[in-house]
Design brief:
This protein is an all-alpha fold. The chain has four helices and two strands. A hairpin with a 3-residue loop joins strand 1 and strand 2. Helix 1 packs antiparallel against helix 2. The longest helix is centred in the C-terminal third of the chain and has 37 residues.
Length: 205
Amino acid sequence: MVSTKTRYDAVAIALHWLTVLAILSLLAMGWIMTSVPPGSATQFMLFQLHKSVGITVLALTVLRLGWRLAHKAPALPDTMPPLEKLAAHLGHVGLYFLLFAMPLTGWALVSTSPFNIPTVLYGLVPFPHLVFPAALGSKAALNADFVNAHFIGVWLIVGLVAVHAAAALRHHFVLRDTVLTRMLPRFGPSRPGVAEPRFRHGESR
């Protein structure tokens, strides 16, 4: 059954933008913490904050997926070609996969690190390391694999986020439909009975 909603609900919008802010902060911290002097207090603080925000992203993603499964998303515009709809769907699946994979590989590489530094979320809550059976190999080999997977995931998520943002902006400024506005927060009361305007390509607002 196709959804008749024209916008995402407030919970979905809040979870989406909190995740966006968290991902952007993680990318910024990842770049900075690998640029500061190794072993410095600044690097240690950034690593702890990076781990804290990463686990927060994992929790937000679990909430997002649960909410998404229980609440139908608004339908894509009828004017979208089937291949574009398929690409949008696959893009969302890829983003969800990476939103799980990135925190999990980060958690795994910290858990197998030879430094064995404890994780304390936001300086308040101790967070356990993952335990891997010896049959999987040495910690050093596992750590190298998880570091590589996390590094590859960084570039994959940068690419997918860039494509996702570019597609949303194209829909808003070129195609002039409601794909972007349905995920934007609405400030102020809306007028009952007034539908959101739908724009066709070439029409002015």
